[in-house]
Amino acid sequence: MYICQRNTFENLATNKLSRITEMEKRGCIDWPGKADYIRRMSGSADIDATTQEIVDEFSFFDDWMQRYEYIIELGKNLDGLPDHKKDEAHKVPGCQSQVWFYAMQSNGRIRFEADSDAMIVRGLIALLLRVYSDRTPDEIIGTPPEFFEVLELGSHLSGSRANGLHAMVTRIHAYANAFKDGLPDDTVAPEALS
Amino acid sequence: MNVINGGYPIDEIRKDFPILSEQVHGKPLVYLDNGASAHKPSTVIEQIKRTYETGYANVHRGVHHLSQIATDAMENARRKTQDLLNAADEKEIIFVRGATEGINLVASSWGRANLKEGDEIILSVLEHHSNIVPWQIVAEQTGAIVKVVPIGDDGTFLMEDYKKLLSDRTKMVAVTHVSNALGTVVPVTDVIRLAHEQGAVVLLDGCQAVPHISVDVQALDVDFYVFSGHKLYGPSGIGILYGKEALLELMPPYQGGGEMIDRVTFEKTTYAELPFKFEAGTPHIAGIIALGSAIDYVTGIGFDAITAHEHDLLEYATERLQSMNTIDILGTAPEKAAILSFNIEDVHPHDVGTILDHSGIAVRTGHHCAQPVMDRFDVAATVRASFGLYNTHDEVDALIEGVRKVQEIFA
Questions:
Q1: What is the largest CA-CA distance in chain B?
Q2: CA distance B167 to chain A (A)
Q3: Which residue of A has its CA nearest to B348?
Q4: Contact at 8 Å (CB) between B218 and B198?
Q5: Which residues of A are catalytic?
Q6: What CATH number did the domain enclosing B365 receive?
Q7: pTM for the structure as a whole
Q8: Do B33 and B53 have their domain in common?
């Protein structure tokens, strides 16, 4: 059996499962992480493809009002959290509006649930969940939030205390690190992060 | 000349503030966050540069030329501040980092020397956290009790409730002159007179008053008065504590260090005279000197003109907002200064602020470090437009247009 390096594969065609077919045609039958990759590709797009999708979506908008209308639409459609889950323990500090975050791991993937009292922040949460929810800790840790910069939402990650983006991404990465370090699957308490 | 404003030289004034010609998100800046911090005229910016380029050295120390120049300039700024507040003596003007440090100084130094168990400190619901937390700390240390004057539905200071709280147990009344969250002007003359009748001392937080109205500490007969330089078109990192000489003399030092001593030995240290007793360490020399330039600037325009201009803007903005649907104005006291707090129904203030920002409009959204005020009106936050001497009616129109856009987007 011919074993390919993962990075050789990653550099080839970009089209999800068709990449695998192409690889096999070239005699590259197996490589490290193939099973995981196929599983991911069969479900939602992989994490890099998802960030690229979002960047592509935003490139269709002509002006900031359209971008924000879209964000607000995403915010309105976010499932959010029931009121009883919006408690102090799950609040993300460092946001001007109120933000609550939950994380749960099963089968090696972390699922996030979150909500905010501000609609634009809810929209940002929807984007964050699309990228980071249902991913492995390694995928999350390996994906910094730079893709947000190109969305032109007027928020710079370094100084985005105002919309809490930085605080939310920090929280997401903290959960990923904690689960990687052996935090039990059903732990949702943020105090486990400190 | 702006016709609406009569003789107010708004066009000339705007030219004095370089930052006002900046663009934000491709749109002309409409700066309505003066309550948080005001911009600086060229004279202030130039003064900072000039100090460092030609007149800088440490103060009150060297016999050399530059030290003398810097010391003279700094003491000149003290006299300008004395004139601004009409203080009886320049040694009643203490340079601090900001109003927050001024209040902490009084709470710590005066408070620990004068408060004991069961004594009462009266604050009001209108207070900024800076005029709450220092008193809670000293209350905890001394066993004193904090009492709070409530406010009415329109945000007025409730004088009858204040009178009921006053007693011979009252030792300190610390209230704001103008509310930072609502703009309410507190009837401080009566507050002070009634406190003095009970033998209590009064501190006024003047942060939102000094930039907008003329303040005379002797006419008020106030004991302590604080304000911050950066809200008065001066640099940040410099604030003023005014205190009556007789009170300051009896107070122990707040911080120890250089500049505040008379003679140091390991057995016993004696302290410097006022105001230096309270100015330990090297001060914000360039900032103090530039604050003097800021004071020159505002007094050059004159408070009668500034107050009238800002009052016009406030009335105009209030009227226009009131004529719109789904707007709640918080704080409608008969006497207000330059601050307009509001919410758009069903839209989070943070969302309002974000959309306004993209229209080039800077407002403050949040609790304004005055959570008790937010609790009083049962809101988490508000949108606050706060006016300064350089704002225009056109900028109010831009705000209204921005609010319309928010309503449209969130409809």
A1: 73
A2: 39
A3: A118
A4: no
A5: 95
A6: 3.90.1150.10
A7: 0.86
A8: no
- Out of B299, B322, B347, pick the residue that ends a domain: B299
Number of inter-chain CB pairs under 8 A, A vs B: 45
Interface of B with A in 205-224 (CB under 8 A): none
Interface of A with B (CB under 8 A): 64-65, 68-69, 72, 96-98, 117-121, 154, 162-163
For residue A66, the chain B residue with the least C-alpha distance is: B409
In chain A, DSSP assigns E strands to 99-106, 109-116
Contacts of A97 in chain B (CB under 8 A): 348, 350, 381
Count of domains in chain B? Answer: 2
Tens digit of each residue's pLDDT (9 = 90 or more) over A37-82: 554 554 457 888 888 888 888 888 888 888 888 999 999 999 999 9
Contact (CB<8Å) A121/B350: yes
Q: What is the ipTM of this complex?
A: 0.76
- CATH of residue B176's domain is 3.40.640.10
Active-site residues of B, by number, are 369
Q: Which residue range(s) make up the domain with B252?
A: 46-299
Domains and CATH numbers, chain A: 9-192 (3.90.1010.10)
Q: Pick the last residue of a domain from B299, B334, B349.
A: B299
Task: Name the residue type at position B207.
Answer: C
Three-class SS of residue A175?
Answer: helix
- For residues B261 and B138, membership in a common domain is answered with yes
